[in-house]
Amino acid sequence: MLSVFQRRDMYDSVVVDREQDVVLTTGQLYGLQVRREVDRSFKPVIPFAPHLFGSGKTRFVKSYLELLKSMGERALIGPENISDYEKDRRRSFLDKLHETILLYVDLTDLEPTNPIEEKRNLKWAVYYLIIKTACLQVDIPMMRKTQAYETVEMEALNLVTLLRDILNMRTDQFLLVAFDEVGVLDESDGDFDFETTQDGKVFPYNDLFGIIRGLCLEDNVFFIVVGKSEGLNIHNNAISVSRVELTFIPLSPLEKDSIIEHLEKSSSFMFTGSPKVSQILCHQHFSTSELAELLLELTGGVPGLLVKAINYLLHCKLSQDHLLLSKESFWMIMNDSIATNYCVDPLLPRLSSLSKTRQRLLKMLTLLALYHIRFELDELVHLSSTFDVFLFDLVTDMCFYRRLIVDENRQERYEVLIPKLLIGYIEQSVKNDRLEWLLLQTLKSQPVEFFYESKCRVFEGLVATMFYLQFCYHPTDSLMFSTLGQLSPVWNEMNLKFSSESTAYYMKSIHYTRSTSEVERDTFGINDWKKIVEEMLEFEKIYIPFEPTSRSPDILFKLHGRTSEQNLIVGIACKGRWSFNGIRWNEIVDEACKFLEPVHDQVLTIHPTLHCMLVIMSTKLSTSVATDLNHSSHCYSFGDRVAGDYWIPLNCELIILSESDVENFIGKDILSSLRSAFKSTDNPHSRSIGISTVQEMVLSLSQNN
Question: InterPro entries per the record (predicted)?
Fold first, then answer.
């Protein structure tokens, strides 16, 4: 089976959904030209893509000019209001850009180069690599090193003149040099004599961008730099030291519509007539939209992982012509270790050797990905009292991906993306860490609908995770369990120890029956509580409803009695109140009516050994509720009247936890930070929540682990 992978690509993949990246890159190239014309002491601007394998860096720079031509004037002239003179100026620039010669330079070929006296000189090594690349591009004999050195004499103008001669270019014709694999400089410390700071440190990227800066002073020469690297750290140093302004090219993962476009436009030369990929893999009962959704769920829309997955599917189709894909067969094929190893091969060494420090940071990044907590470009993570790292760079270092989010106010923030393809390999490195295992399994179990917006809310998810960990490890030590036991005799009759083998996934879909345009989902309607209890709550799992529905508690689980005589269905209503207004009596009654009553009527009347409990866990109670409860937790049982007009049904209990008990369970500092973050937005970014709070959440959860 491995022989099938000898061919690198099974199809001609078409680059899609890169319009915004083209606009940004073109704008930066134009900005460099304008600065050059206005002030010769300008600071050059360079488009920069410091992303991980698979983000589409190489394919983008190689396809940039083609993508530029396909966009026409939209690449530089947008809807903004500019003068006719400026429009004409931009059109003239675009016309020249359409005639540009692209020189793609792979820095993995960078090596110390003779002549002897300059052998460890980075500038000469870069110059000669550019010259070699130009010779190869036009298929002429390689220029000898001594001849090249004598011709260039380490002068930028001489190099540019030589390149124009080799590439047969006019003096007014644009030359675009694209440096790829810039990350090799991280491993080249012993190869070159880099500039040294006063404290003995070297920053190879400063040297490289200093070289590029010198070349930018020459007319009609432009640069793009890409490659896995500590992008933000390099960005900041380049501004202050190399006097170069780097602008990030986002290269965000593809969305579903873009994957559909990719499948419908890309052709496979391995099949007769070179049909489109969608024609090969899809059929009457399995649409392109369904395949795109599955690929999105598997790869997160990361272009490199996406192309590899499609390649593998085409290999399977070529070797098994009768193969008809379906959702089930897709996952059967792509969950095979041969498929996953093939797709993530470049990342395997890094994923399989997580250091203890990176394992500790993994929980934080998984929480950020799970809850779609956004972060800003310059967000810092404190690794120790003396060492910080940019979260932007940490994501790349951990072999994860970033997704750029631009909100309604045009503010740019990022989200952490962990494709499902990677999760199995990460698990192997943290197999003894139950908390990280749970977080990863939760992330893995999320349907594709979670890709763009988290349905697992931070407060509910935090509560559910804490309950899960205490059920699995420390039920007798749990203050919350002790409180519930003091309030409810039924709770004391339950087996509070989960078997860890049966709790792989705690998120599940519980909401009203509906269908999408093409896929019918398993959902539950208003009269389906018997089905929910019998089918979904059969196992020892904690469930968070798929959507923030108004007709279900935020967390559900079922506890088995120590004997078969009693079982307890528990619903927890997590009421995150982050302002001054606490939960009122009428809201508590509403929660009881939508859960206790239907469960009693549809389930308990049929199964008399079942009991039902609703726990109100609110971060703030209204003054009247807190006063009536004497600022203590309280349990209402069968026959008790709540708020004057609601009676607790048979075999049911309603527990209202005091603010102090909720605070003790969650943690005072965590609640304070969440309150600060959520009072202004439903989806706060990490600066609102605070990275320190996310790390504190990890610490708090780990203590229950």
Answer: P-loop_NTPase
